[in-house]
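Entry:
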Amino acid sequence: MTTYEGCLAYLNGLVNVERTRLKSADPEIFKLDRMRAILSELGSPHLQLRCVHVAGSKGKGSTCEMISSALEGCGLTVGLYTSPHLVDLRERIQINHTLIHTDAITSCIARVAKASAAVEKIHGAGTYFEHLTAAAFLHFAEQAVDIAVIEVGLGGRLDSTNVIIPEVCAVTAIQMEHKHLLGDTLEKIAREKAGIFKPDIPVVTCQQSKPSIIEVFREVAADTGAKLDVLGDSIDFSCRFEASPELGPHARIVLTTPTSNFEHLPVPLRGEHQALNCGLALAVIDRLRERGFVLPDREIALGLARTRNPGRMEKIWGNPRIIVDGAHNPESVGGLVKALGAHLRYDSLVIIFGCASDKDVPGMLSKIATGADKVIFTRSENNSRAVDPRELQRKFNEISHKMSQTAPNLKDAVSIAARAVGRDDLVCITGSFYLAGEAKRLMSSKATGSMGS
């Protein structure tokens, strides 16, 4: 494996849970023994890192972005490992928001592949996500980052990232997702997410949709010896939504602990739902201070303000205005529709929507119906689990009389939307990160000319 193209071809030949429809948690795929064995062959780079570990159903990517930006603002060298990627695989492994170089990831994956082969006879073949996770740990250790912010891929307890001993754990909002793998109740899913808790490691979380979720967290924390704190409970937290000439509509938060007093900090990302994620990010910063990190208030605020969040209410085209968002469950789609109305002015909203078959399709469609003036159903070319657009339209018509049509692919959907909207209208492409990523690739390849041409 000597070229980046060869690296990609190798990875694409591995079992990829992100793109595979799995009926249940296959013990041969979801087990940490293999991950630990691979890392041991590599010299256990994960044990050389100081880390933050973030799990949850909604908002964990945004929370990771805000944590890493705040830490980077304090002058630290910060590794960031997230998934999935939108356009470029290298988005998953970054240092100070610079993507890993093609030569570096090729070298890292080649070494991980060798380590995986060495343990395969005993532990089975390494997966796509295991290879990338091991490569991230290897890269961060060799670049001697000051801290690495690690996003859980799926669940928590059996996720490949759950081999680290973090400085702090955070859990974002818990929602119904991957029921066939994580459990069919919010409480079961919460228990899987809480599988990242470690003895004597602080854990922070936000208020949840059901008190029983917090009770699960408290139970697991007590069993593992982790110290759990909750925003708005043991951590003094409040937020408000306002508008100003400088920032436009935005949320501001207050977070107070014995060691921190963050007063009316503006949330850098759009949407009221981002206030909780920002609060969690600051709670993580506070716990890192307790563990010896020097993180001044001013630098935290400046770093936080520079947070980027690709694929989440991201503008990718100007005329007509096109926004992409990777919302892929009812709560996220509902939050998106609400945030669009709060932050952007438009006459008419056209939503281009496509999603995977294992998602809560009726739930997402009902949220779309509350905000869209017209919907164009399509599918991602690269997702074998994508629902047929005609099936999406049929289900939508059962709950709404709003205008809708189908397009066999995203390019056609965008062309239809471009002909239907005016200067003051808005097009939003959502339903999955695959669709959002495909939209970014499509628009970046369009060099000049209007969308309708």
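The chain is about 40% helix and 20% strand.
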